[in-house]
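Let us work through a complete example step by step.
Step 1: write down the sequence.
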Amino acid sequence: MSRAIDRDKKRFDQIVRGKIRKDLRKYVNHGEMLGRKGRETVSIPVPNIDIPHFRHGQRGSGGTGQGEGEVGQPIGRGQDDGDGQGQAGSEPGAHIREVEVSLEELAEMLGEELELPAIEPKGKDTIKSKKDKYNTIGRTGPNSLRHFKRTYKEALKRQIASGQYNKERPIIIPGKEDERFRSWKTVMEPQANAAIIYMMDVSGSMTDDQKEIVRIESFWIDTWLRSQYDGVERRYVVHDAVAHEVDEDTFYRIRESGGTRISSAYKKASQIVSRDFPPHDWNLYCFQFSDGDNWGEDNRDCLKLLIEGLLPHCNLFCYGQVDSPYGSGDFIRELSKLTDEHENLVLSEIESKEGIYDSIKTFLGKGR
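Step 2: predict the structure and record it as tokens.
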């Protein structure tokens, strides 16, 4: 039977997670937990849930409904007007509780709240990987794999069968013939794999606010896709007039200036796919973020590269246009010319952090 404290803890965990689900849009849009992200969990600040209780006043001090008074008159001490100045207080204030939640749980909440369908991998979506399963028992093996319980049982059976067992002095000494070892069998398991390529315009018109939007949205995209695939690989491309492949930290911190040629990012992404991710073995996802400013004569090259080099191989190609006071915002209109013929091209306009929640639903809502 479960202990009362275990039942109480389980109920408390349910209450806390219910609070997180209720405020999920706030957490998604503003990314309170991103700075507290671990390898498999994140710490989320949740306001304390207080249990109602009575507070007793001083004896004989009166109370509501007692003594003389006028309608609207403040009740209790400390209600007189003042200038707000005085000595530092000594009473405790409200505290925020940080609750650790696994990325798997976050993905489940995100899927339920946004009503995201499970992803159906395209085409030949799996590769085989070798995996050793320790599911048998053998008579030989290294000491590190000795199965102590099975070894003890074999020794006990031998002593009972031979009449050596003394219940008054139940000493069991396993011999060499009693030893049993865990043994493995190598099996081939299908492993669904996904590759994500993030592309971002880092020209002078993309400010730190726009990059923060990209960082928050990318976190939630990663969280969802990791819940759908056994293995997820990520690559990062930044560009102004020229594209570069960079690491994750550089992707969110770099800032450059100059013109913008989005086609340079598409060429770099195609090179990465050819080099690292054969389309018949990988489910490919491309997420591009820009303020929509592009050199006018480059638009034609962009559409051609998309149609011929990326869209045929991608589960999804998602373009998020982040509103910027400096960008023209024209590029999304160029991409909209392709959406009727290419269902895997998804467009989203993100005006501010408040739009991240809906943008994620737009990108991942097709279950591709």
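Step 3: interpret the result. The longest strand covers residues 181-201.
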